[in-house]
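hey
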């Protein structure tokens, strides 16, 4: 590393990278050139140095490379990420070199999206995708750090959840007619719509009263795409007996690979068609307007918790990635446990106190009775008499002490 003054008065700072390639920049002042060289040396020592030439790729080109490598994503997720890139990220960042992306610029971009009226959820999703693109650049040695990290994001305000009672579920199912079984399955098993629509006859275990959730279907660009459930994990869901009776008529005599729930035309039962043709109008007639098929998952959680299901059981039933996620979503439903716990602790302490009082009563006999009588008496004379009797009783309970004379009352 060196700094040399050029004939034109400029200062040329240069260094060699780990491959031996020389890099140089020119500055008007020597101290600026020396500061640049020093910063490069520090970054090399810390292992943070990156080749500036490798950071000249544009965000558009790098985002395309990143998206092509996301082979682990479900088709629907891949499509959503592509849409976020095309609509939110690339209009601003397409021709910017990844090495020129600054933290402050990302923060201003986030602020502009919010000011344009985009929801907090959309803003956060767009930022996440952009951050993932830049994460790959860091891992590939093109950036020393991700400039999108640490940007303050808008808070997502959770909408109030609607929990139906058993009676409301029954009314809604009745209003759906022959499709009422769909409502009951959603409300008492917590299946996602895609999981229900992809449920096959061979995965309905009537004898064990279980449903095996191993597949899900989603609509991508008008095409039904089958894949794994949301968390990529199979799970079994308890099946109440009355649902077994409903499902028996739908599965008996059919091939194990057939779909349990199908459209009138024999294809996949699509949620949009189901809502338009059956569900939404039935919800109005049942007095539960605004409830959605997906919202019945909340009802399933509510009814299960109301019957004493713990958080781990609810997590497994709903297919959440963790119990922490279940608590985040349904913390309010578990608040009643606090009152129950307080009542149980209170009862335990009172029971122990009663047991201790009974034990003392057995040891002290009339002495304990006299103490209770004295405590409850409000007359001074009665109190004095009780104290006298207690003293007389106590004299017979004190034994010899050390080498002192045997004296009652010591």
């Amino acid at each position: 590393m060196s700094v040399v003054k050029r004939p034109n008065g400029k200062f040329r700072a240069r260094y060699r990278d780990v491959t031996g390639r020389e890099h140089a920049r020119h500055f008007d002042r020597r101290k600026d050139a020396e500061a640049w060289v020093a910063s490069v040396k520090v970054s090399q020592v810390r292992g943070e140095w990156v080749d500036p030439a490798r950071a000249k790729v544009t965000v558009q080109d790098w985002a395309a490379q990143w998206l092509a490598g996301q082979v682990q994503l479900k088709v629907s997720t891949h499509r959503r990420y592509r849409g976020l890139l095309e609509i939110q990220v690339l209009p601003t960042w397409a021709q910017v070199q990844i090495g020129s992306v600054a933290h402050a610029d990302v923060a201003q971009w986030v602020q502009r999206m919010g000011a344009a009226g985009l929801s907090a959820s959309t803003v956060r999703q767009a930022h996440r995708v952009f951050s993932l693109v830049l994460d790959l650049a860091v891992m590939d040695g093109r950036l020393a750090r991700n400039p999108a990290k640490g940007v303050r994001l808008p808070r997502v305000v959770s909408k109030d959840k609607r929990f139906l009672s058993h009676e409301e579920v029954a009314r809604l199912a009745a209003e759906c007619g022959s499709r009422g079984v769909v409502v009951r399955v959603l409300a008492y098993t917590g299946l996602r719509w895609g999981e229900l629509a992809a449920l096959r006859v061979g995965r309905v275990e009537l004898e064990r009263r279980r449903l095996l959730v191993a597949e899900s279907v989603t609509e991508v660009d008008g095409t039904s795409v089958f894949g794994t459930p949301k968390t990529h994990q199979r799970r079994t869901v308890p099946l109440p007996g009355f649902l077994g009776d409903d499902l028996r008529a739908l599965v008996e005599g059919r091939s194990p690979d057939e779909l349990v729930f199908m459209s009138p035309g024999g294809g996949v039962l699509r949620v949009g068609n189901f809502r338009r043709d059956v569900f939404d109008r039935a919800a109005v007639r049942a007095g539960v307007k605004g409830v959605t098929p997906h919202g019945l998952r909340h009802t399933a959680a509510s009814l299960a918790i109301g019957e004493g299901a713990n958080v781990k059981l609810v997590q497994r039933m709903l297919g959440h990635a963790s119990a922490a996620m279940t608590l985040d979503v349904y913390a309010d439903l578990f608040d009643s446990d606090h009152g129950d716990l307080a009542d149980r602790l209170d009862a335990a302490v009172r029971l122990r106190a009663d047991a201790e009082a009974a034990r003392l009563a057995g040891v002290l006999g009339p002495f304990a009775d006299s103490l209770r009588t004295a405590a409850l008496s409000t007359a001074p004379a009665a109190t004095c008499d009780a104290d006298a009797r207690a003293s007389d009783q106590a004299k017979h309970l004190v034994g010899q002490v050390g080498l002192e004379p045997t004296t009652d009352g010591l």
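The radius of gyration is 37 Å. The first strand starts at residue 2 and ends at 5.
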